[in-house]
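ugh ok fine here u go
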Amino acid sequence: MLRKNLCLLCSLLTLVFAGSSFGAEKLVNGIDANFPPFAFIDKTGTPSGFDVEAMNWIAKDIGVEVTHQPIEWDGIITSLLTKKIDIIASGMSITEERAKQVNFTIPYWVIKQVMVTKKSSPLTVDQALTGKKTIGVQQGTSEAKWLKEEAPKKGWNFELRYYSSSPLAIEDVLNGRIDAAAMDDAPAKDAASKKDVHIIGTFGMHDEEFGYAVRKDEKELLEKVNKALAKFMATPEWNKLIVKYGLNK
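structure:
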């Protein structure tokens, strides 16, 4: 009888903790590997970036190992919901639409949306929006959604061209295939520091906050990541990481 009761208890515990990634010793973090300085693949082929290093610190603090899995941004939430990954720590804007699918941590960064052109281009933001120009955006981003929805309301007549990453849009700006690219200001500044492009301004979209995303049923994981993230943000190491990736500029 005792053995039967123990087996029953084990079965109940299995049901309670089944499907919880936090019950495991490892977490898989989904990243957009083309989103510098928050996440990218370095010259050695290793995932790197602000969010990658931050997640490494958080994982160590909560006592788990973490690996970083590159995922196409347009399908990254689907990968989380289907349990191919356990968390998204990769410059994801907290939006009302996304919050219906996932739970977000506390915000850790504020981002602006900007327009980028070649340095030699005289194009202004207003001309890009109203002058029948072609603007590149990354598929699945909040700026892509916002520009598509706002254009008919405001009478803008630009053409949107979609890319799998912001760096690919930048390359087409440089090659003259598109007139401008819209993106978060951090990767825009990163591109401007390395390539012959510059930021010409914001385009009317409100500032957004970044947060890490977990599945709705991962409440324990969310609580522990929130606690560790808040702890990390209060340390000198957090500020050093900001400086390391040029986010203080």
